[in-house]
Amino acid sequence: MAMEDSLVERARNGDQAAFSELVREHRSQMLGWANQVVHDSALAEDVVQEALLSTLKHIGRLANPDKFLPWLRTIVRNQALMAIRGQPRKRELAVGIELLEDQTRTESYAGAMDDPQLAAIGNLALNQVEKLLGRLGDRERAVVRAYGMAGLSIQEVADELGMKTGAVYTALSRSRAKLAEARFEDEIDRYLGARRRGRKPKQAVVRHVRYYGSAAAYNTMASTMMLSIGASGYHNISMKEIMGATGLAFRIQATPDLGISGAYAFDWGITARSGFERLGFVGAVLGGSGVRLDQPDELIESMDMIVSCLEQGIPSIAWNVSNAEFGLITGYDDQERSWSVMDTSSSGKKLPYTKLGRLYADSEWFVAAPLRRHSTWITQPVSGIFKDAAMHIRGGIPGDTVMAKKIPSVHGKEAYRLWIRSFAGQTAVSPLSVAYQAAVVAEARAYAARYLDSLAESLPIRVLYSSTVPAIRHAAGLYSKIGEAWAELARLFPLPYSADPAAPGPADRSVRLLEQALTAELEAAEALEEAADLLERKG
Fold first, then answer.
1. Residue 100 contacts by C-beta under 8 Å, 6 or more apart in sequence?
2. Percent of the chain, pLDDT > 90?
3. What is the predicted pLDDT for the residue at 528?
4. 3-state class of 283 per DSSP?
């Protein structure tokens, strides 16, 4: 430790070589500490870079060199917690604003250090901060400098600048929004500049893509997957196959308040990835349910994928391009810096590049597309579909428990029971939510019956796996009955103007219908498990 104490003492006095040696010695440890908190290697790298900057600024204040290691570990842990909590005190402005706290010390280190990596980090961060601050008005800039550079409290900033504390909070909030937007705009500038230098096309559009017939489903994830796959040249993949392969035909979930968002309260990423795979495609999926697009590099990754797909004539699936549903990105225009988008409510609408995944303050970020076809063998994906469907009705498929932390919801039989308790207690629930959920599940179960019937009739199943046919047909018949029960529920509560879910007559009838449907669902789960077991034995 004596040697390390010496290095720390020299670093405290401005010795850049000593500081570089400390970094080289402890960087791998820092990565380990960071990863213990964030559980993400890429994010851990970002945490360590931020921690290095903080160490660089504050090492001169470390009183006891022998306490360097626990001090360093505390810095890394705090930075890691900031990264996963999202909005700590200084992060509420923008990445890098905290460097203003001790600009003079950081500049001297950045300019003098022999370590190129650390020097580059310091200079780049300072340049970015100054450039970002130039986007603010005079008063906003003064507030940010006082709060971020001088480290003053809200009250002290107010006293210093002759403002009310409420005005300081407002200035900080506006500054944060402007700085966040500026960071995204700067990244897009760099991305488009690179495209210009590479003489890339300035625009592309996929024509003749529109909602029609079976594509105009209540489940817009399935309908947009069908349209995207069709545009890639595979027009023979039907809606029932997509509903079956994704598992959407067998799903039911509900939020605790039985709100309308329950229809989409599942893991979009897992559903899209497994759906593409089972349909015989390699799919790209970015973001997901409950995920926010916080970093500019995530936006650029999305843009790169979308542009590449559009140049091959494939529209990308995205969430919230216009309304709170899945839609398609059908074109791009670098000169206008906008996407052409469509969903069930609009077509050809323009969405600014910066608003992809960020249309509203609480928007979720999700982009997906089929990249290429691959060969697959029927037994493995079909048995997986059956097992996942059975597991779901009994409480949820793998991944839903993780998503429940971001989107609280119940699945399968628990969703049924939540609805039954609501109707039995004649609880006040949004009539629109009841009508919409009934229509969604009725449609899904009708597709489940059709999907299973088509499997039972398919040549590979009839010839190679004939022993599975009775179980598949039995499940198909049950799903047909389940669909009829939900269709009756939908007639009790029709869109767009539903009856009162708390009215005794409709409520009592709904309880009986849902209890019948749940009994049939559990029986169908047993039939699907039997079919999956037979498929895997033969396979």
1. 129, 144, 145, 148, 149
2. 41
3. 97
4. strand
Under a CB-based contact definition with an 8 Å cutoff, are residues 325 and 220 in contact?
yes
Say how far apart CA 109 and CA 500 lie, in whole Å.
69
The whole-angstrom separation of Cα 22 and Cα 16 is 10
Collapsing DSSP to helix, strand or coil, 35 comes out as: helix
Q: Which of 1-5, 171-175, 200-204, 220-224 has the lowest mean pLDDT?
A: 1-5
Q: Which tokens in the block code for residue 267?
A: 């893991």
Q: Reduce the DSSP state of residue 358 to 3 states and report it.
A: coil
Instruction: Return the DSSP state at 315.
Output: P
pLDDT band, residue 119 (cuts 50/70/90): low
Domain residue ranges of the chain, discontinuous segments joined by +: 2-194, 210-237+281-371, 251-258+375-539
Residue 81: per-residue pLDDT: 78
Listed in sequence order, the residues at least 6 apart from 311 whose beta carbon sits closer than 8 Å to its beta carbon are 201, 204
What is the H or E stretch that residue 285 is in?
strand 281-287
Let me know if 21 is exposed, middle or buried by CB neighbors in 10 A (0-12, 13-18, 19+): middle
- pLDDT, averaged across the chain: 83
Q: From CA 61, how far away is CA 54, in angstroms rounded?
A: 11
Structure tokens at 462: 């009839």
DSSP letters spanning 108-135? HHHHH-S-HHHHHHHHHHHHHHHHHHTT
> Quick one: DSSP state of residue 59?
G
Checking if the pLDDT of 191 tops 60, the result is: yes
From residue 240, give the alpha-carbon distance in Å to each of 32, 96, 151, 324: 47, 50, 59, 23
The answer to pTM > 0.85 is no
Beta carbons within 8 Å of 307's beta carbon, 6+ residues apart: 204, 332
pLDDT in tens, 266-278: 999 999 999 999 9
